[in-house]
DNA sequence: CTTTTAACACCTAGGTGTAAAATT
DNA sequence: AATTTTACACCTAGGTGTTAAAAG
């Protein structure tokens, strides 16, 4: 029943909003498939290890704490979801995002136009209209309770300020640098409402008790 | 240009709200008079030391972070304003409550019925209707940048968790106990919407670089 | 002289991976 | 054997009164 922050966090830039209109921006995390995975150490790969039915659960929505906010303000800043918390506790009552361990997931970002018809700050699920949703291939991740991949561990230690105590000022740095070259998202992800499509340019996203999928 | 939390913080209990209706609850701090004060140490008293015109400033509103919320939820819990921050910086751009040092002030609590006509989460000033305001005589305080009254200092050290490092486990305890007997607010203040009046029963309220008024 | 500012040691509060223990 | 939980040392982040220096 652990609950930890998602790290790296999802960070997005938005353009094409109406400056004076009010928007909510939210994130949720949806299953990529219905498979359960296990990590095969000697081949450094995630392998299918069973099936899971996710169809009866609706994902929880994390509303960005700045919501609601004008399109102008949203577009002026990088929108960071660094306080999102994940848990594997299905009975969680703190509103955190509930995921099953050893499964693949992908975050989605939702931009919701304010509408006086629904209760704006009490949103528990997505409204039927006035929503645009985006997701990014490179933010896919696999959930774990213990790290399987030492490269991910090193990346987390080096990039997460709260893990500074585990940093080795010595030669580990080279290993991390190598991983970062292949780490797809370094700068904020980009959402363009004029194009109405997901234009990814890198950024950061993943989760806490989590390793990336590929090996 | 200091900005510190208000301590003790204002804590209220509410009754008489409509359970299913949505409300904002907010606090602001208004001048008690137009006088500037100085503390006369030998007589342990605040004396008038000048005049100030507060008429051209509208006080800033601090909206309780749980807002908006149903009447049922508001009534079920103690409503604590322990994150309110005060500053003497008139140019403050962080939204903190701006006060002048060496003046007397009194907090006000506002209960605001949700209304689709105004932009609910962007409230900068009080709406013209649908608001009920309460204040409590015993929460009056005088602002300072350095404590004038050693009893207040001792009370803060003993009651504020963040000041634990200054606590003296020895004989100071007796002094504080004596002050607490005369300290008027120990339990949450009470707002009754059926009576539409301020029914005070003690509680806690004051401010950060602040001493109480009386000697 | 009175009042304010800034640096400081000392706290609370909470986010890390780790390693051992517990669970399945 | 694989996975999860728990206690832990070590961090970040930020709230205290104190003190000396600065400002008025």
UniProtKB/TrEMBL annotation, chains A, B:
Keywords: DNA-binding, Nucleus, Transcription, Transcription regulation. It comes from the Eukaryota. GO terms for cellular component: chromatin; nucleus. GO terms for biological process: cell fate specification; positive regulation of DNA-templated transcription. Residues 1-168 form the T-box domain. The keyword Nucleus applies. It is found in: Nucleus. GO terms for molecular function: DNA-binding transcription factor activity, RNA polymerase II-specific; RNA polymerase II cis-regulatory region sequence-specific DNA binding. Residues 202-215 are annotated as: Disordered. This is TBX22 factor. It comes from Halcyon senegalensis. The gene is Tbx22.
